[in-house]
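Entry 14. Two folds queued back to back today. First construct below, sequence then structure tokens.
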Amino acid sequence: MNPDELLRLIKGGESETIELKEKFSDAVICAVGAFANTHGGAVIIGVSDNGEIRGVRIGKETLSQWSNDIAQATDPRAMTDVKAHEVGGKVVVVVEVPESPLKPVAVKGRYFKRVANGKQRMSQHEIAQMHLQSVGQSWDMLWAPEASLDDVDFDLVKRYVQRASDVHGKRVLDDETPLQVLEKMELVKEGKPTWTALLLFQRRPQRYLSQASVHCGRFKDDTVVIDDTLIEGTIIEQITATMDFIRKNTSVRFVITGAPLD
């Protein structure tokens, strides 16, 4: 990074990828964690929030010590490139942070993400989702720990396969059982159904996932609801019922004016 580019970044102020700090502190490390968990960025040390270059005093071991402090405070360790630059006759330090390949990165047990020109504490749900995405998994493909194959309605599986066969012209159940079909689709793992299997093929998946429902409403205005319904059941049933609700509450009006068509 050359001085002109650095000066341009400083004048641009804080953003989704730039943080300005007057001195090295825990706040710098938190910003590093947020950048590592989002799209990467840089912390410029020796500059005030309003972009005034004040500089920092560094010694022979300062940069390596700051790098070590960041590494010790983050888990997994955040990758950084810490370098000193001279801008306007003063020394500033740039901590460049690439997006971490393994996320989320914790800072002393806390997790942050970059939002606009600041950082935000991550919720437990966000932490779990980020970890799954980082390792190439998704929540819905994990097996449900409290469920068993008894929770799967295999008649629903047969019905699903029959419909797929009718659409695609491929007879599946002629030589495969419903369980084998689910195993082939990776909806059953090690003899246990995944969350996807429960959402698709359990009569009432809300037994394990109370939030797996659709609440539909029709509003007369901002505060008056004239029709609403809570839709439960399998995902397929919810989609069908939701579309029925939308069709029922979508009005069609014809106006006959008697005017000739153009």
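Second construct, same run, same settings:
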Amino acid sequence: MIKIQRLSTASFKITSPKGKVIMLDPWLVGDPLWPADERELSKLAEINIIIVTHAHFDHVSGVEEICKANPAALVICQFELALSFMAKGLKNVYPLNKGGTAVVDNIKFSMVGADHTSSFLDEKGGYQYAGSPCGFVIEMEDGFKVYAAGDTGLTADMKTIIGDFFKPDLAILPALGTMVMEPEQAVFAVGLIKPKYVIPSHDFPEKFSQAASPEGYEALSQKFPIVLGAKQKTVAFSELMRKKHRRVKVIALNIKETTEIK
């Protein structure tokens, strides 16, 4: 059995069958969604492994905070992004690239492709590219496989590499549109991947009051108006899934919500 808790728009805490805690794409700095009690040092220190799919602020800006809370936490990410973390002084970093697999505590982390970008804001206000985006197939100690797609558009790899070769049990897929797959494309991706379960990601709460910091969420929505329509995209995805893939269970998690999958 694995446990998955959603902590932000694309941040998920996954607990393996043997109790290892894996953090996917942590967004902490400037994040109005991550619950306050989950920001406590004792909570962050529980995280054993951090995996990062790309360098955008809403996927990477909690890595250093978690490593401060738990210096033993291992960061697994694409090669150039790993070098940027090392340059900042992080010691426990595992550089990986597409096609490679890291085996940590009997859990396999296989890096796969993603169609997106990977960049970060530098001190002068410009953007610097940090390698290329990726996804991960995580094989737990008992063989259960999770495909964490990161931010991606629809790709042919979803059939040949992800679906045919890895055969994941669960897929965490973005369905927001504009920056990632539209709901219709995400539903088509499910048909290629053929998982038993799917969790839509990269949507936002419908109301400001549902965020940990309503004021921060309102400010974010003013800067990025796309977030205001994000919840409707998840609803559209779920409705399309009921029509096209009724045998696949959709698990739509709200922020802080946890699910268990056997």
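Quick look at the second one. The radius of gyration is 17 Å. The domain at 2-261 is CATH 3.60.15.10 (Metallo-beta-lactamase; Chain A).
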